[in-house]
Amino acid sequence: MCDEHKFLKEKELYYKQLKDDVYIDPEYKSRVVKCKVCNNDFHFINNKKEFIQFIQNNINDDNYFAIEMIKLRSTFDYPGADSVHFDSKNNVCNYCKFHNPKSLSKKIKDYFTK
Questions:
Q1: Interatomic CA distance for residues 32 and 102, integer angstroms
Q2: Among the residues of the chain, which ranges form H helices?
Q3: What does the pLDDT read at residue 42?
Q4: CA distance linking residue 44 with residue 93, whole number of Å
Q5: What is the pLDDT of residue 110?
Q6: Domain count across the chain
Q7: Residue 61: which domain range?
Q8: Please, are residues 51 and 14 in contact by the beta-carbon 8 Å criterion?
Q9: pTM over 0.85
């Protein structure tokens, strides 16, 4: 599907871009938590080596790198990231938090029953 040379070039550019984004924060602990709705893992990553290993283990080299990173982006956080895709207070990933059909139907029901 994807030209291997293009995939490797996109991955290399992405790694170069990360040089200042990912850093070690002594207050930030690496861990994996599960979303209580979908039961998928969410990874809190505290250093660049761990982050690159996570990418290597979780992307499909047969697809476009940018698409793989978009899919993967909702499953991790690191110090320096623009936004966090997990609600740690409620143990819910953003996908479930904002796209859960039960919560949507509940919101609709609440709106019409007021």
A1: 25
A2: 4-17, 48-58, 65-73, 94-99, 101-113
A3: 94
A4: 12
A5: 65
A6: 1
A7: 4-113
A8: no
A9: no
Are the C-beta atoms of 33 and 41 separated by less than 8 Å?
yes
In the block, tokens 């993967």 appear at: 72
Q: Give the burial class of 94: count Cβ atoms within 10 A of its Cβ; 0-12 exposed, 13-18 middle, 19 or more buried.
A: middle
Q: Which residues touch 42 (CB under 8 Å, ≥6 apart)?
A: 32, 33, 34, 35, 75, 76, 77, 85, 86, 93
Question: 63: how many CB neighbours lie within 10 A of its CB?
Answer: 13
Do 60 and 68 contact (CB within 8 A), yes or no? yes
CA 88, 90, 91, 93 dihedral sign is negative
Torsion 37-41-44-48 (CA) sign: negative
Whether the predicted pLDDT of 112 surpasses 70: no
Question: Alpha-carbon distance 50 to 38, whole Å?
Answer: 24
